[in-house]
Amino acid sequence: MAKDFRAQRKQGWLVTLTLVVFAAATAGCGKKEDGPVTAASGRFEVDDGTPVASGSAGPASQADLGTPPSGLATAAGDVPSPPMTPPIDAAMGGVTGYPVPEGNDALLAFLDRLQRERPKGQTQQEMLDDYRAIHTARTQAADKLLGASQEKQYRVAATQAKLDALRALARLGDDQAEKDLNAYSRVAAKDADPEIANLGRLMLFGMSLDELSGGEVTDVQPLLANLKQLIADQPNAPGVFMVTRQAAMMLHQLGHKDAAAEAYLTIGNAYKDSPDEQIAAEVRAMLEQAAVQSLEVELDLDGKLRALLTGQPDSAQPVFDVFKAMLGSPSPGEYALAVTSQIAQLLEVSGNYKEAGEAFTLLEKTYENHADSSLAAQATARAENGRRRAGLIGQPFTVTGVQADGSPFDWSQYQGKVVLIDFWATWCTPCLQEIPTIDAAYKKFKDQGFEVVGVNLDDERQTVVRFLDIQPLPWTTVVSADPNAQGFENPLAVQCGIDAIPFLVLVGRDGKVDALHVRGEKLEQKLAEMLNPAGEPAAEPAS
To answer: What's the predicted TM-score (pTM) here?
Structure first.
């Protein structure tokens, strides 16, 4: 049960806004995600589970709350069983490889070094073992320092180190570490030193966020009450603003929008006049986000988007009305730009090009004189790209570039055929998830005149070459002929206004663009219309 909860918790940190979930399912990846993608033999996956040996080049995942350290990448959906606790070397006074020193200053330096230590090993298991050894040694050194000195600087450093190390071990599936973390956090929260007490309270609050994200608790009122109490008691204590802001974001992401709005207002009122300009700026952005999110709830954006994306009749105009309302505030900011850009893209993806065009035009006009010139530039760029994409419909289309191996590509051989052009990259999860659908359609319709051309947008040609060596695709892959114009700078991607992938262009027998964004079941439905217009029985899939 505990391991299952941790698997859920790991995924919980990756939950996004409902709107963004919709967008990810339809619009795909914007530019580049963190971390490269490798090909798994016989499958199209983000990660093949191969560990990165210390000092070697290869895939590495960025460490974040709820995931193992950098380099401990695992296959999608696979949570490794935690290794056994490394043996304690009594003679060295610590974990093998990390002997705990003597003396307060030496212990303090040791804790500082271990905080920055990266796990070593030639296999994933060895790296997990070393990671556990590092944090086991941290707890031992922290306990030793706490027992040796009552001086504030040592106690604060040791308390922070012990809390961090226990949390790291708990997230690797160590049940005893999780129990110890809970108990020690409660002890620290009652310490006479307010700084140490704050560390304990913040850790307890962070653990409650873990439980919420993992689905272990559903009643958010206690967490909301704790958030308010943290701010009321010590608003200027280190970490309070960051963890409460994180909690407010998570409440919204998990669908507790009323509680999230209350949390945003509490945080905003407490920090809006902060002398720290960075915090004050973040609070202004937070209050703007809260206002936009309040409109999302009030105007039922989620419901209207569901209607739009499930093809309900007359569903585009209600979404466009919400779009206009979100841009109607006196000074819409960064969050409003992000949300409304997604809405405009969803109007486009769902085939409502008229409303999408109006949305992009209004987006650009709203931000053209914005006080933040970077937001104005972003809005203009997104509007221009949107107009370029919409302008493809009904126009002749030509694929340019060279094949992945550098040999010439001849677009003329596709004349008179229905061709799907798939803009993709190896690092884009939705792109890889779309390939089996495209492959099934290719096998079913290729004898009726259907072809596929992949346009790869990796930054380095060799990346896709290695991918195709491991996992070949049955159609031609094209890359930019210009080594200095790869990725999203590919001239064809720029010409099409592509800012998110996979981007699918379906060209008819006449060489003109017939449809965009034909993902999932839309592709087969559209191909059946284009290749079998008379309603004749469809051909059997090719063997």
So the answer is: 0.61
User: Where do runs of H (alpha helix) occur along 406-496?
Assistant: 429-445, 461-470, 491-496
SS3 call for 317: helix
| CA dist list (Å): 463 to 457, 459, 475 | 10, 8, 17
Quickly count: other Cβ atoms within 10 Å of residue 383's Cβ.
23
CA 289, CA 340: separation in Å to the nearest integer?
12
Residue 452's alpha-carbon distances to 400, 436, 456, in angstroms, are 14, 13, 13
d(CA 377, CA 183): 51
**Burial (CB count within 10 angstroms: exposed 0-12, middle 13-18, buried 19+), residue 60:** middle
> Cβ(519)–Cβ(415) under 8 Å?
no
Cα 337 to Cα 115, 133, 301, 329, 353, distances in angstroms:
38, 46, 15, 12, 19
Residue 277: predicted pLDDT: 87
In angstroms, the first-to-last Cα distance of the chain is: 45
CA dihedral 48, 51, 57, 61 (to 10 degrees): 80
The pLDDT-based confidence of 30 (bands split at 50, 70, 90) is low
Task: Give the integer Cα–Cα distance in Å for 284 and 280.
Answer: 6
Structure tokens at 183: 């108990």
Q: Could you give the CA distance from residue 395 to residue 512 in angstroms, rounded to a whole number?
A: 5
277-298 vs 257-271: helix axis angle to the nearest 10? 150
**295-314: pLDDT as tens digits:** 888 899 999 999 998 889 99
- By DSSP bridging, strand 476-479 and strand 450-456 are parallel
Contact between residue 28 and residue 428 where contact means Cβ atoms under 8 Å apart? yes
pLDDT at 27 over 50: no
What span, in angstroms and rounded, lies between the C-alpha atoms of 183 and 196?
15
Peptide bond between residue 502 and the one before it cis (omega within 30 degrees of 0): yes
A 10 A CB-CB count for 449 gives 15
Sign of CA dihedral 281, 500, 516, 20: negative
C-alpha–C-alpha distance, residues 159 and 335, integer Å: 37
Report residue 108: phi and psi, to 5°. -65, -45
C-alpha closest to that of 461 among 399, 398, 410, 403: 403
**Bridge partners, residue 402, by sequence:** 408, 479
| 410 CB neighbour count, 10 Å cutoff | 10
How does DSSP assign 221-264, residue by residue? Answer: HHHHHHHHHHHHH-TTSTTHHHHHHHHHHHHHHTT-HHHHHHHH
pLDDT at residue 284 in the model: 85
Pairing of strands 88-89, 94-95: antiparallel
Average pLDDT value for residue range 265-273? 89
Q: Which of 195, 198, 197, 221 is nearest to 208 (CA)?
A: 221
